[in-house]
Design brief:
By secondary structure, the protein is mainly beta. The protein contains no helices and five strands.
């Protein structure tokens, strides 16, 4: 199955904010990702099989860097 590049490489190993269409958001750092069937699979810092975040692309409003000071 063909994989697509969705995030910019500059976001790897940095904090990001994903805002959904209903204006809820998720903050965190991700180590890797892949995409299939219009779904993003994000692998966070503590990468275990049960901690991966599956996000339908149709639910994403914005993906941006998140500065934590």
């Amino acid at each position: 199955m063909e994989q697509e590049v969705i995030f910019m490489n500059e976001y790897l190993y940095k904090d990001i904010k994903i805002t959904f269409l209903d204006n809820l958001h998720v903050l965190g750092m991700y180590m890797g990702y892949y995409s299939f069937n219009n779904t993003i699979v994000i692998m966070p810092e503590e990468d275990h099989d049960d901690t991966r975040l599956l996000i339908p692309l149709s639910a994403v409003k914005t993906i941006e860097p998140w500065p934590i000071d």
